[in-house]
């Protein structure tokens, strides 16, 4: 047995973020985070947009602590407390013979954790960082505490951290079933298809602002529930049939239907009711609560054409092309764009009404991504975010 109180046990996980194509907007229970309608999302490639979280446990830790992107944050909020409580409740006996560590099921309640999390993309800017963050926290705590629950149950716990986090427990295409029960036990995510099912899709995110959102999703949602007559109508009448049609579109890889439903749902979510059908569904767009635009293209060829138009209209402010497009950079060479001079030489898109109108600097940068897999354990110990001797975040 390791000397009493000296050992530190750690687990590290990485979870992707997700973008809803049928939106979650409005809660029927604030504390349990139960939605008023089902929602559907695509999980993005964790190489481009993910949270990485290390959770350490030791008898020498006097309290639970957390660091997000290197800064200590409070764990006293109800959402963190719910996730910690629900995972601790389900912890099982653990034994590491080599390290001579034995933890009985009932001991987990008295052991404190240190959590260090890092997002590889802007936090709280409408890119669903809390979805990746809470999915990662629940997944990694579950690994550390030897929780045997299936992914559906884990998604239901992640939901109590941040609603859309339940969808980040799976890769590919994911549905969050709103559930009917008052205790929320049937409000969980299911995978509709994995990331290999429709791997041609290219997802380009125009990051307009990587600053914190001015209105949190929670208060925006509350405001809509209280003031928007459209919300109940949307939840009860529009979304159920849209969800069914979206499931069909995904199953059949029917991009025209997928794009039409995605854009229509984004429009309705923003209550702009744009019903003008001038759009030919070559590309789908969706906007979350933040200002960033998510564009989904059916294949690489369309994505390169789209990128050329985007870079024509939104050229970078400085000369560094490689930091202006992050993620899958190979799309730049596919588009024949090797330098800023190539971007400057792009022709105006033929459909532009005022061809010399450019919006230099309006987009901070673009992320090119694709569908991705669900959470994974990071077993390379050198990638842990907590020092195995001090129990504190590395570099702090
Ligand atoms: N909110 C935003 N990012 C987060 C993370 N990585 N972990 C927990 N909460 C978060």
Automatic annotation (TrEMBL):
GO cellular component: cytosol
Keyword set includes ATP-binding: yes
Any single GO BP term: isopentenyl diphosphate biosynthetic process, mevalonate pathway
Pfam families xrefs: MDD_C, MVD-like_N
Residue stretches making up the Diphosphomevalonate decarboxylase-like N-terminal domain: 16-189
Lineage top rank: taxon: Eukaryota
Enzyme class: lyase
EC number: 4.1.1.33
Domain Mvd1 C-terminal: 203-273, 282-378
GO MF annotation, one: ATP binding
InterPro entries for this protein: GHMP_kinase_C_sf (IPR036554), Mev_decarb (IPR005935), Mev_diP_decarb (IPR029765), MVD-like_N (IPR053859), Mvd1_C (IPR041431), Ribosomal_Su5_D2-typ_SF (IPR020568), Ribsml_uS5_D2-typ_fold_subgr (IPR014721)
Record-stated family: Belongs to the diphosphomevalonate decarboxylase family.
PANTHER family assigned to the protein according to its UniProt record, in alphabetical order: DIPHOSPHOMEVALONATE DECARBOXYLASE
The name this protein goes by in its record: Diphosphomevalonate decarboxylase
């Amino acid at each position: 047995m390791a000397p009493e109180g000296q050992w530190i046990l750690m687990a590290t996980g990485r979870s992707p973020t997700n973008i809803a194509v049928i939106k979650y907007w409005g809660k029927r229970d604030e504390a349990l985070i139960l939605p008023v309608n089902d929602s559907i999302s695509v999980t993005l490639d964790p190489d481009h947009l993910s949270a990485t979280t290390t959770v350490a446990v030791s008898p020498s830790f006097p309290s639970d602590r957390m660091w997000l992107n290197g800064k200590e944050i409070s764990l006293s909020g109800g959402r963190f407390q719910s996730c910690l409580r629900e995972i601790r409740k389900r912890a099982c006996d653990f034994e590491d013979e080599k390290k001579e560590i034995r933890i009985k099921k009932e001991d987990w309640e008295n052991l404190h954790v240190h959590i260090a999390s890092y997002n590889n993309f802007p936090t709280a800017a409408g890119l669903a960082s809390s979805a990746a963050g809470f999915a990662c926290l629940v997944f990694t705590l579950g690994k550390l505490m030897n929780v045997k629950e299936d992914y559906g149950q884990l998604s239901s716990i992640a939901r109590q951290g941040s609603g859309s986090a339940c969808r980040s427990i799976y890769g590919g295409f994911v549905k969050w079933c709103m559930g009917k029960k008052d205790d929320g036990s049937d409000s969980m995510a299911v995978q509709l298809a994995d990331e290999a099912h429709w791997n041609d899709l290219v997802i380009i995110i125009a990051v307009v602002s990587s600053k914190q959102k001015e209105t949190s999703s929670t208060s925006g949602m509350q405001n809509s529930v209280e003031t928007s007559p459209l919300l109940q109508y949307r939840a009860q009448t529009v979304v159920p049939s849209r969800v069914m049609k979206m499931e069909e579109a995904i199953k059949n890889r029917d991009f025209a239907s997928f794009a039409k439903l995605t854009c229509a749902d984004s429009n309705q979510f923003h209550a702009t009711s744009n019903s003008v059908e001038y759009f030919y569904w070559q590309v789908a767009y969706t906007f979350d609560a933040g200002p960033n635009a998510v564009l989904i293209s059916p294949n690489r060829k369309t994505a390169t054409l789209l990128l050329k138009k985007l870079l024509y209209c939104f050229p970078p402010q400085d000369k560094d092309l490689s930091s202006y497009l992050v993620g899958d950079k190979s799309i730049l060479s596919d588009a024949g764009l090797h330098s800023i001079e190539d971007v400057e030489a792009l022709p105006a898109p033929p459909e532009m009404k005022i061809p010399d109108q450019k919006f230099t600097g309006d987009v901070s940068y673009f992320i090119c991504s694709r569908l991705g897999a669900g959470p994974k354990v990071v077993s390379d110990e050198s990638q842990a975010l907590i020092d195995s001797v001090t129990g504190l975040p590395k570099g702090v």
